[in-house]
Amino acid sequence: MTELRALTPHSVIPAEQASRDRHQKRLLRTFLPELVQLERQLAEAPDFVSTQVAGRVVVGPMGLPIYRVDLGTPATDVPVVLIVGGVHGLERIGSQVVMAWLDSLLARLGWDQHLNALLEKVHITLLPIMNPGGMYLNQRSNPSGVDLMRNAPITAQDGSAFLLGGQQWSSRLPWYRGRPEQGMEVENQALEAVIQDLLPNRPFSLALDCHSGFGWQDQIWFPYAYRRRPMRRIDSVMALKLIWEQAYPNHNYRFEPQSAHYLTHGDLWDYFYKQVNRENSGVFLPLTLEMGSWRWIRKRPRQLFRLDGFFNPLVPHRHQRVLRSHLTWMDFLISAAASHQNWLPIGEQQSMLREAAIMHWYRDTR
């Protein structure tokens, strides 16, 4: 299972190699316990859970794997749900939420007939730790200093937020986009390869990317981030919002386009949304879960003195609350994808819901 091998010459004697392996394992337990936990999860998972390495990131002497986890039906004509965590290395809670949901799912498969029947209608793919190098180094960017969410080949149409919207001056400054001539970073290339392998010719697909660090409230963001005009399938986002609110009227999420807050260059999900929906006849909806970390800081202001305190709940009971609070939302997305034909708008419904979405989210930009 493990891919964490030192990049050393073959001439290294076994005792020295074993010593280095032990040292690397100690480093991982200290600086990247999420990867150790994920490998333990996958080692104990049933045989029908498929695991492969989608990419590998070199940090010092180590090659850190980007694990891809697949479960559900292998049929290529069923809906897909792609769940991603850890794009920003500082936002460990994103990976932890994905792994908590995977734990819940695997535990239920042994007795939940409804869940087993559901997985015969949908395919699920997870990339729980997209940026293992950044997480190991305890930094937002990847080991090259590039912000993966500013690294796609797409440019904001209007003025982007200063620095926050992505900059190309220096990797020493935050939100560095990288150099266009170098292409996307290895982590994003791995994600792109998964999407190209997974999504073509699907009737419906949905992605959820788990982040933290913005606002007082948990938010569900959707494209676009590069412009303020609505996306082509905005009617489908409104339909998803409505069935969620009908099923769970007491929820605490706020649905908004990211452009309602700021514009950015290089947004990954803008790029993949345009690519997938340009090439396919089906519907692809990428969503981002932005967990409101300001609440954790307000309740425990001394978190401001720790870098990880800006983005993660550090008090144990709050951490546990966050891990369980998003399970219902993620279960809902699986059920919604499997039953997409029952709620996706068609015909006149599309026009009606598109107009409702524009009035709800874009009336100030018309």
Compile the SSE list and pairings:
Layout (H helix, E strand, L loop, with lengths): L13 H18 L1 H12 L5 E10 L2 E11 L7 E6 L6 H17 L4 H6 L4 E5 L4 H6 L48 H13 L5 E9 L6 E4 L11 H14 L6 E4 L10 H12 L3 E9 L2 H6 L16 H10 L1 H12 L9 H14 L5
Parallel strand pairs: 3-4, 3-5, 5-8, 6-7
Antiparallel strand pairs: 1-2, 2-4, 6-8
Helix pairs in contact: 1-2, 3-10, 7-12
Architecture overview:
InterPro entries: Peptidase_M14. This protein has helices spanning 14-31, 33-44, 92-108, 113-118, 132-137, 186-198, 234-247, 268-279, 294-299, 316-325, 327-338, 348-361; strands at residues 50-59, 62-72, 80-85, 123-127, 204-212, 219-222, 254-257, 283-291. It is α/β, with parallel strands linked by helices and 366 residues long. The protein has a single domain (29-365), classed as 3-Layer(aba) Sandwich (Aminopeptidase). A hairpin with a 2-residue loop joins strand 1 and strand 2. The N and C termini lie far apart (53 Å). The model is unreliable at 1-12 (pLDDT under 50).
